[in-house]
Amino acid sequence: MSKITTELLLERAVPRSTRLRKIETLNLSKLQLKTGDLDPRLFSRLRHLQKLDLSDNLLDKFPNSLSLPDLRVLNCDNNKLEDVTALKQFPLLEELTYENNVYLTLNDDYKVIFLLQNLRLLNGKDITKLANQVRRVNSHKLTSKVTAHWEKFFRDQLPEKYTAEQVKSIKKKFLKSVQTNVVYGPSSLSEFTRWRVKMIAEEFLASSLGLELNSDTESEEKMDEKEEESTKSPGEDAEDVAQVVHIYDPLVTVTPSKRKRNHSKSSPGNKRSKTKANTEKEAAEDVSAEPLHFLQCHSKGNSREDFKTQLWSCVFEPVLDSGARKDPIVNSSRTVATCGGESVCLIDCETGTVLKKYKVATEEFFSVAWTTLTMVISDSRKKAHNILAAAGRRGIVKLIHVAADFCYGEIKAHKKPIATVCFSPTQETHLFTASYDKRIALWDIGIPDCDYNFKASQLLVLETASIPLRIALVPTCPEQYLLAGCEGGCFAWNIKLDKEQKSRPFEAIFQFPDEESMTTSHRVDGLAFLNDDVVVSKSSKPGCIYLWSWSRSFDAKGKGCQQTISAVILAELEWSTTDMSYLTLSTCPAKEYVFCGDEKGSVWMYNLSNYTTAWSSAKGKRSERRISPTQILKWPELHVNGEQPPEILVNNVVADPAFTYLVVLTSVNITAIWKKS
């Protein structure tokens, strides 16, 4: 690939030129140029350049100092641009095109319209009317909201005589608060709105109050922008968005200090009074969590009156830094994917911002899962990208390239609904789908090429005796054994692919204590590994949560075909005695926590770090008494339009790997986000 030289610039000028300062039109398309090839020192000599064509190259951004003071027309089609803010260095720009840059979204369109005051044509379309809205009306309304937010919440916090440290503290709090709470326009433009609100807030502090800006805010903004890609929905118009209800929204008030009284069967008076006292003592020592956001972003038809849509699954996005991915704490992200009803949402847990929303009008999504694929993007370059799989009632898996805001394909996996999906931790393209057709299928989803062509293939089918509800791969041998909690019990399969048999029956079924004896016949609607060996499972029949040893249970099986195995119980967790089904559990292995919601909107949290060492011993005995929760997070009194939502069931609750955030999915279309303090 040729680097840009003086000779190349003179040759590619239209018409050819003998001096750089005489060039007015320059064609640098189809040269495989990368950002580092745009040398500012060389470009600074193009003082009279008015038209520049950089299409069909490999640019991922613009250098900040190209010094083209007279540039009027710029073509950047078919590149890899990820950000547009550097284009503000071309203030006279009138025509700009950057189509087929898959990482740019509607939010970027609005940013360049605001930054380039002379811009008339964007991607071939006249933006005159829209520009007036963005540059004037939008700015005026946001400025009013920012000012009002300061006056209402922050003005009285600043004393008449203040220190530099006080100024720094209140500025940080204000910038964070105003970006979270000032909402305007559709949620598909929330990234742009947040970007403008931050800009307006900084200008307000500097001009009106004399609080000068610090350079650290710029680095914070870059970090925020990296995490908050876009809110444009694949296949959606900008107007077709969800209503997001924050706890700070005037339509919703929440009073965390006032809790609902728990009248559930899980607190039967004197019998557990000692346990409750122990729980409160442990909670005070170990855990402190506060409600951060309550969001209503899965509404059918975007209706704020929708309190019927059930939310089922959520999973935190993995961090792309491959060097840190083996460490679950470093691998912690604040972006979570949630699903329920006809939509899948990506939410920034810190700000409560819905970053993206994907909707299929005829679908009801039940499960989502992440994987990271290393894709060849162009010029044989490889880049890691997070891919989200979503599935539900239609039996179809949707594959979404999140950074590109694009659903690039689907797999018609089953003829009946898919209850849950999960990716292999060792094979990035291997996806398991568990369906109401009483089958669990293993798929190789392939890796899409630069044109998003891919080929999926079915590798294995596991036959189940009843509908599979939850699946988990055994951490010590994820390529050999899979566990499933089903309507009719808990089963295990050998999934090793070196066997010829592509359709396999289960290898073992586990039996658990019933009221009087051991039983295999019970619904297992919660299943997860706490560590490499300890399995956590919930059965709706006994109304309890068991912890048991995978290795000690399965080793007892020995050689042979299908066999009934007694689970080696390590402990039993005290939980609600409700007979309500499908209130599933989750674990945070790095912090040794178990979480499970109940029928009253509460979240039961168990810190098991004091028990796991004893359980790891081959002679580890079962705990004599039930382990009580470390803390129970009660549902706050939440008012929407002056009314409380109907009875709240917690369908799912998931923590990020570092246990910074706790995401609670409910039966009333509300996603609650708690933050550990």
UniProtKB/TrEMBL annotation:
GO terms for cellular component: centrosome; chromosome, telomeric region; kinetochore; nuclear origin of replication recognition complex. Residues 288-676 form the Leucine-rich repeat and WD repeat-containing protein 1 WD domain. Residues 7-200 form the Leucine-rich repeat and WD repeat-containing protein 1 LRR domain. GO terms for molecular function: chromatin binding. Pfam families: LRR_LRWD1, WD_LRWD1. InterPro entries: Leu-rich_rpt, LRR_dom_sf, LRR_LRWD1_dom, LRWD1, WD40/YVTN_repeat-like_dom_sf, WD40_repeat_CS, WD40_repeat_dom_sf, WD40_rpt. Keywords: Centromere, Chromatin regulator, Chromosome, Cytoplasm, Cytoskeleton, DNA replication, Kinetochore, Leucine-rich repeat, Nucleus, Repeat, Telomere, WD repeat. It comes from the Eukaryota. WD repeats lie at residues 411-445. GO terms for biological process: chromatin organization; DNA replication; establishment of protein localization to chromatin. It is found in: Chromosome, Centromere, Kinetochore; Chromosome, Telomere; Cytoplasm, Cytoskeleton, Microtubule organizing center, Centrosome; Nucleus. Residues 215-240, 255-287 are annotated as: Disordered. Coiled coil: none annotated. SUPFAM superfamilies: L domain-like, WD40 repeat-like. Gene3D superfamilies: Ribonuclease Inhibitor, YVTN repeat-like/Quinoprotein amine dehydrogenase. Residues 223-235 have a biased composition (Basic and acidic residues). SMART domains: WD40 (SM00320). The keyword Glycoprotein does not apply. The keyword DNA damage does not apply. PANTHER family: LEUCINE-RICH REPEAT AND WD REPEAT-CONTAINING PROTEIN 1, OPTICIN. Belongs to the LRWD1 family. This is Leucine-rich repeat and WD repeat-containing protein 1. It comes from Toxostoma redivivum.
